[in-house]
Structure formats: C-alpha cells, structure tokens
C-alpha cells in the first residue's frame, strides 16, 4: 500500500462558484439529430486517439469528419461508419468517426459533413463554430468532471437541475469527464437517450441540446456501465474502440450463465484503463440487471459475474494494477463501496464477497488497496457522499449519484462511521438529510451535483458543485 497523507480544505456550502458560460451551441442543420460528442480520447503510445460520434436522419447515407489543429479543422478526413437506430419511433443513423495519431497535450478542432471527402455534402454543423478539445495524453496537470445517475426528464421533457449541471460542466474547464453509471432513465433505450428534437417524459434525456448536447462536443466522456441500460445500446452510444484494446480490457456483449437462479443472459462487459500523465484511470463494470437477479440481488450477482478471483474482470484488473506501479490511480464503477442510502446501500460484496462488511478480506476492495488506489468514484445511490478511508483500505470513496435522476434521502437507517460528509433529499417529504459534517440541504437543487477534480502532479482537489452553482465539501489530497 502506498504511503500517503491527506490535507482537507472545507468550504462552506454557501460559498458560490463563478461560472463562465461558453457560447451556446446551436443545433447545426436539421439533418443532424445528435450533436457531436467525443469518446475514447486516449493515449496510444506517443500519440492520442479520438472518436467523434453524432446522429443524423436517414436522408444522410454517408458522412465524414475532418480534424486538425485549432485554426485549421480540415487537415485530416475520416469516413464515418453508421448504425441504424430508432428513437421514439423515428429512424436515424448513429455515426462514429475514429481518429488516430493526435499529438498529446494538444488542442484540436473538427467539422462534420454529409457525403464523402471526394463528394462533400452539407456541413452538418451549419454556422456553428468548430468544437475544440484537448488530446490530454502527456499532461501532468489537468481537470476532469465526474457525474452519475443522470439522463432523466419530467413529463414536459425538462430537467432544470440537470441542464444547469451540464451547462456548468461545459464551462468548467474540465478536459474530460467520467460517468459513474445509469445514464438515460429508465432503461437506457435509444428513446431515453433521444435526440435534438423530440421531447417528453424520459425521451431525449441525454442528447437534447440543453443537456449533454452542450458538453460532449468538446469534453470527452468515459462512461461506466450501470444497472439501468445493460444492453448493447450502451456500447453503441458510448463507443470505446481504443482504450479496451490498448489496455487488454473488454468492450463487448458477453454471455453470462445462470447466477443465483437468474436467467442466463447477455450483458455488456465494459472495463478498460488508460493513463494521463502519471495518473491511471480504471473504468469498471460493477453492475447487474435489476430484472434478472434470481434468488440473489444485484450486489451478489455482480460479485459472482465480475469480482470472484477467477472472474475475467478481476484477473484483468489485478494484472493491470500490477503492471502500473506508482502514480495516481482513480477508479470509476457504479455500485457503491460505501453508501448511507437505505435503498442503494453499501455493497458489502465489494469488500468481503458476502453480506458482511469486513475489512477488505475477500472482495475487489482488497485488490484496489493492495496496489494503492487513491480514489474510487461510485454512483447508484442518488445522493452525494464522501467516505473516509475504511480501516486498512488505501482509498477514499465518493458516491456521486446526483446528476439528474430522482433524488433519495441519506442516513434514514443511520450514518456509517466511514461517512465523512453526505447529503440527500426526499422528493416525497420535501426534506433534506445529512450525515457526517454536512448541513442538511434546504432544497433539492443543493443535492443535484457533479464533481470537478483538479490534478497537479500528486495533488488532487475534488470540488463538488451543486446545480445552484455553489461548491461544498471541497477537499485537497496529497498522495
């Protein structure tokens, strides 16, 4: 286990953060149905790769993207590949364009066009400015955002808190972003993800322009799988062609046998790692489908599928951790290491392989601690919670499940000794709840949040930011 020490900097919940708004992106031309968004921006040796994703109506049968250094966005052309999808009964094409050979720690811009490089059609971005992003491979100082359990809408298709969080992330200075699972409620369908034009209850929960449409064009996302939306749609919407291959991970549908009396089924395996500077990032699958638990539950079934010592994901993780000693290590996975939600409680199987909460004796927590993982980010519980290091474990953990879906209270069944700061909200009682050093929130808007994480060498600051724009429970760690 790495030796380390913590320096805490607490900022009161009333302190405000200045948010500078970026120019709002437009919707391009009518044929563009999902605004472009980036995935798989990862180092590949001395260069970086990147995948640009978007969707169109089915009048666009060929499309491509151009990319180049800022100021010259047309230096390299790459043809897109398409998959037919149906969004709320409407046929569309989901496109992805993969670029390789990008210079690390460099800024790039890109454009989208219908047609081909030899027979170009309309510019799908219309008069919108060219999106700009950074290929972060060689950086030792950078910022990233973390948000979980988002992509939800009211009956009229709105979600003011989620729109505010997306706007704040878009202008936060984050160079990339992680999801901690459960994106696009309630089932992660193409209709839940939606497009730029259709609205309604749980339609266009993600790709509506006021949501992720203002984030993903310039902030790449690495999204962990959650228990909502365990289907091939997840792999289609969030393609990661490079990172799993380069790290020996997996990004595919796999057949799972009956576990604890569940029905044998195929689910995504989505786990991989990549490095930025001296930091190693692990995006893991810690989830199981709610509808197929048999005599177990999602925690026990996930453990059997992914975290026994002979499971493929566990063995891969052990090998990759061993191959990357030193430096910072961050983990992103859905089911929570610790949680004081009474319904989405701590996953004891991650610690002991059983229903008992023991000291990292038989689960993945022991593996993470063996190799000195520094911070684990989880979702699942629709709350905010920061947990102290538990006994001999190496890491602190965060539950960041307040990205936009219906919130939950915290501590109604008691607060754990590991819980340093937690807040939740009951939408039925219209009441705030707290654990640890927190103050009970007076509105739901104080609980909806994302995390902005700043890395400078081995110093890491985590800044939770509410949908109101206020920061709270800011912590700085020196590892």
Give short descriptive properties of this protein:
479 residues; mainly beta; seven-stranded mixed β-sheet; 8 helices; 12% helix; 35% strand; globular
Tell me the β content.
Answer: 35-45%
Indicate the percent of residues in helices.
10-25%
Task: Tell the overall outline.
Answer: globular
- Describe the strand arrangement of the main beta sheet, using strand numbers: 14-15-16-17-18-20-19-21-22
- Cα separation of the termini: 12 Å
Mean pLDDT: 92
In DSSP terms, counting alpha (H) and pi (I) runs of 4 or more, how many helices?
8
Low-pLDDT stretches: 1-24
Class computed from helices, strands and strand pairing: mainly beta
Indicate the radius of gyration in whole angstroms: 21 Å
**Major beta sheet summary:** 9 strands, mixed
Number of strands: 25
Account of the protein in words:
- The structure is a single chain.
- The protein is mainly β and 479 residues long.
- It has helices at 160-170, 190-193, 232-237, 243-247, 298-307, 312-323, 349-352, 364-370; strands at residues 5-7, 32-44, 47-57, 63-69, 76-79, 81-87, 90-103, 106-116, 119-123, 132-135, 141-147, 176-179, 221-223, 250-256, 265-276, 279-283, 328-332, 375-378, 384-387, 396-400, 419-426, 431-436, 449-456, 459-466, 475-478.
- It has 8 helices and 25 strands.
- The strands form 4 sheets. A 9-stranded mixed beta sheet has the order 14-15-16-17-18-20-19-21-22. It has a 7-stranded mixed beta sheet with strand order 1-25-24-23-11-12-13, with no helix packed on it. Strands 4, 5, 8, 9 and 10 form a 5-stranded antiparallel beta sheet that branches.
- α1 (160-170) links the parallel β11 and β12.
- The longest helix has 12 residues, at 312-323.
- The chain is globular.
- Residues 1-24 have low confidence and may be disordered.
């Amino acid at each position: 286990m790495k030796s380390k020490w913590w320096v805490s900097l607490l900022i009161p919940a009333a302190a405000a953060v200045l948010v500078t708004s970026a120019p709002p992106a437009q919707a391009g031309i009518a044929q563009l149905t999902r605004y472009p968004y980036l995935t798989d921006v990862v180092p590949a040796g001395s260069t970086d790769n990147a995948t640009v994703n978007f969707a169109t109506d089915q009048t666009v049968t060929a499309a491509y993207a151009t990319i180049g250094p800022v100021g010259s966005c047309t230096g390299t052309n790459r043809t897109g590949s398409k998959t037919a999808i149906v969004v709320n009964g409407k046929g569309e094409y989901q496109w992805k364009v993969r670029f390789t050979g990008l210079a690390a720690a460099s800024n790039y811009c890109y454009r989208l066009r219908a047609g081909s490089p030899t027979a170009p059609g309309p510019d799908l971005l219309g008069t919108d400015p060219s999106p700009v992003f950074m290929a972060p491979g060689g950086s030792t100082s950078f910022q990233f955002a973390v948000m979980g359990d988002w992509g939800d809408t009211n009956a009229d298709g709105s979600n003011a808190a989620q729109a505010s969080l997306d706007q704040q992330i878009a202008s936060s200075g984050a160079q990339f972003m992680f999801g901690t699972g459960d994106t696009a409620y309630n089932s992660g369908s193409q209709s839940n993800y939606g497009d730029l034009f259709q609205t309604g209850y749980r339609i266009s929960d993600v790709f509506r322009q006021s949501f992720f449409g203002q984030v993903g064009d310039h902030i790449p996302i690495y999204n962990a799988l959650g228990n909502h939306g365990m289907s091939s749609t997840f792999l289609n919407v969030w393609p990661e062609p490079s990172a799993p291959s380069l790290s020996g991970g997996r990004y595919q549908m796999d057949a799972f046998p009956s576990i604890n009396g569940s029905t044998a089924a195929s689910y995504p395996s989505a786990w991989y790692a990549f490095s930025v500077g001296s930091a190693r990032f692990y995006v893991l699958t810690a989830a199981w489908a709610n509808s197929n638990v048999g005599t177990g539950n999602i925690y026990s079934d996930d453990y059997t599928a992914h975290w026994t010592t002979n499971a493929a994901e566990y063995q891969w993780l052990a090998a990759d951790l061993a191959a990357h000693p030193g430096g910072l290590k961050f983990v992103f996975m859905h089911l929570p290491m610790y949680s004081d939600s009474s319904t989405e409680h701590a996953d004891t199987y991650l610690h002991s392989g059983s229903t008992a909460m023991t000291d990292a004796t038989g689960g993945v927590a022991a593996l993470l601690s063996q190799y000195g993982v520094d911070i684990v980010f989880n979702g699942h519980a629709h709350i905010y919670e920061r947990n102290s290091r538990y006994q001999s474990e190496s890491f602190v953990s965060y539950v960041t499940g307040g990205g936009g879906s219906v919130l939950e209270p915290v501590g109604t069944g008691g607060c754990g000794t590991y819980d340093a700061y937690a807040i939740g909200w009951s939408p039925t009682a219209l009441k705030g709840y707290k654990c640890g050093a927190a103050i009970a929130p007076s509105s739901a808007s104080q609980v909806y949040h994302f995390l902005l994480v700043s890395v400078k060498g081995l110093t890491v600051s985590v800044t939770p930011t509410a949908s109101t724009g206020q920061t709270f429970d800011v912590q700085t760690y020196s590892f």
